[in-house]
Amino acid sequence: MGIRTTTDDEVRRIMRLAAGRLLQRLPELTDELVARTRDTDEAYRRMVPTDDHWQSVYEAMRDGIGAILVPLAERRDLQQAEKTALRRAEQGLPMDSLLRSYRVSAQVMWDGLVGVIAEEEPDSLPVLIRSATKVWSAVDRQAVAAAEAYRRREAEMFGRTAERVQALLDALLEDRADATLVRSAAAALDLPELGRYAVVITRLPGRDGHTADGARPASLGAMRLLWRMRPDYEVAVVLLHEEEMDGLAHALRPHVTGSAGISPAVEGLAELGRARRLAELALRTCAGEGPEIARLEDRLPAALVVSQPELAGHLSAAVLRPILALDAADREVLLGTLEAWLRCEGSAMRAAGQLYCHRNTVFNRIRRIEQLTGRSLARPLDIVELSLALDAVRLLPVN
Length: 399
Description:
There is one protein chain. The chain is an alpha+beta fold. About 65% of the residues lie in helices and about 10% in strands. The protein has three domains: about 5-155, Orthogonal Bundle (Globin-like); about 195-300; about 310-395, Arc Repressor Mutant, subunit A, CATH 1.10.10. It has helices at about 1-25, 25-40, 40-45, 50-65, 75-90, 95-120, 125-130, 130-175, 180-190, 245-250, 270-285, 300-305, 310-325, 330-345, 350-355, 360-375, 380-395, and strands at about 195-205, 220, 225-230, 235-240, 260, 265-270, 290-295. Strands 1, 2, 3, 4, 5, 6 and 7 form a seven-stranded mixed sheet that branches. The termini are far apart.
């Protein structure tokens, strides 16, 4: 026990001697550490001003070396490490670069300690070696404290940034975008002010607001997507680049298990509010419960119906009232036949295949529809009325 006490005392004496000498050379050590770091790490050169870097290294070395001379309760090196880490996180310096600087500082400090003892008491070098583990452990503790502080600040900054990004995206989609907001949004979202954009709105039956399996792809080929959740649906802003709308619809299909509406392409961020309204209109033309992707350009007649529900209701009543007055089973047979006939462009053979009946049955039902409504499916204007009235029945709520 006596030998160990003497050895521990000797280690403390040697460490205090070396630390005192290093503090006298602190500016020189700081120059060396800053130069080594900036020579080997581009991130420091690009993101941390030289004066800022020098001052923080000076303070860190002062507190780190000074910790050898003071009781554990008075050490300030961990607080200094946290302070530096917070600033580096705010500057955007990668954490890897920050932690690498602690390894370099440990090397510089240890080399300095060895140099002092080799110069003043070379016979005591074996005693100094006993402290190597403690020196490196102290630097490790500083690095751990720095990493924890960096992660906390990064999380705080990400939260603030994410909130701001979502607020800017909301403003664009809600048509509150002036020139200043468009510029701010372009910078924050890393999007061009002018470019080809579309808006997609997705909805799942029974579990609104989610795409397939909860997946929200950030990109589809060359297209980039930014998603915004709503209580009952999700909105995606799509930077199309050179992709055509057919390509967007095709790429979305594996990711949508419910309904989706796609706006026409618009030419800049300032037009996203209009695109969002048109995508909502396209979504309202989806009547089924199964997967369905509606491009507005493909649903313009139906979009007219859902955008003018009062007029559409009058139209359906005026055109289809006799059919709507039938019992439910009979009514659905005739409406389904009319729907298949229009979908098959007047081909009784194709309609019969979809309805699983004989073509003569289709002809008989069509004649009955014409008799009940007083419209002829041979007259273009009557076809338009019947088609719009059918959309009104399928898409509008029953009063």
